[in-house]
């Protein structure tokens, strides 16, 4: 008897952009992931449900991000592997803090730094306001956390901060929930050796520089009760 086939996604959901930069690694477009994103995009989703869906996707992102870290062979009573170096997380406040729980669930006792970046109203450029990072961050692989990638300005500035603290590009993995082609290209143009693991690549930015279709203000929906 033939095995039943898995149901396929509608064509408009299954199709990923074909011209993604080579440092971008989207999660596989499964029915589960599409359903979670559908819940996140629905403006009627309650905060409790939004947090649940977001935490599920964040866990998938962290697990895939860890797959991109180098490993070393370990010979005990059997042949295995272990991560090549120490790991830390760095969240771009405040929305990136929503991803910290998923990282802690996958990496026990992981150290986490924080970066606060906001747009300068006079120049419209991303400006660093605060950074608290592990003292030995230059010796660690960094998982940079921020759920939304629109123009890429904040993420690019955060990567600049990490590099200024001695972290090489190739040791940075940017974990992101929803991105767009424009932001991905900007990231690649600025830092081509930084790997990007994203759950979903949306259509584009609109004239107001919002992601289409997007899911609203992630930080407000995750942290503000209603």
UniProtKB/TrEMBL annotation:
<keyword id="KW-0021">Allosteric enzyme</keyword>
<dbReference type="GO" id="GO:0004845">
    <property type="term" value="F:uracil phosphoribosyltransferase activity"/>
</dbReference>
<feature type="region of interest" description="Disordered">
    <location>
        <begin position="1"/>
        <end position="28"/>
    </location>
</feature>
<keyword id="KW-0547">Nucleotide-binding</keyword>
<protein>
    <recommendedName>
        <fullName>uracil phosphoribosyltransferase</fullName>
        <ecNumber>2.4.2.9</ecNumber>
    </recommendedName>
</protein>
<dbReference type="GO" id="GO:0005525">
    <property type="term" value="F:GTP binding"/>
</dbReference>
<keyword id="KW-0342">GTP-binding</keyword>
<dbReference type="InterPro" id="IPR000836">
    <property type="entry name" value="PRTase_dom"/>
</dbReference>
<feature type="domain" description="Phosphoribosyltransferase">
    <location>
        <begin position="29"/>
        <end position="224"/>
    </location>
</feature>
<comment type="similarity">
    <text>Belongs to the UPRTase family.</text>
</comment>
<keyword id="KW-0328">Glycosyltransferase</keyword>
<dbReference type="Pfam" id="PF14681">
    <property type="entry name" value="UPRTase"/>
</dbReference>
<keyword id="KW-0808">Transferase</keyword>
<comment type="pathway">
    <text>Pyrimidine metabolism; UMP biosynthesis via salvage pathway; UMP from uracil: step 1/1.</text>
</comment>
<dbReference type="InterPro" id="IPR029057">
    <property type="entry name" value="PRTase-like"/>
</dbReference>
<dbReference type="GO" id="GO:0008655">
    <property type="term" value="P:pyrimidine-containing compound salvage"/>
</dbReference>
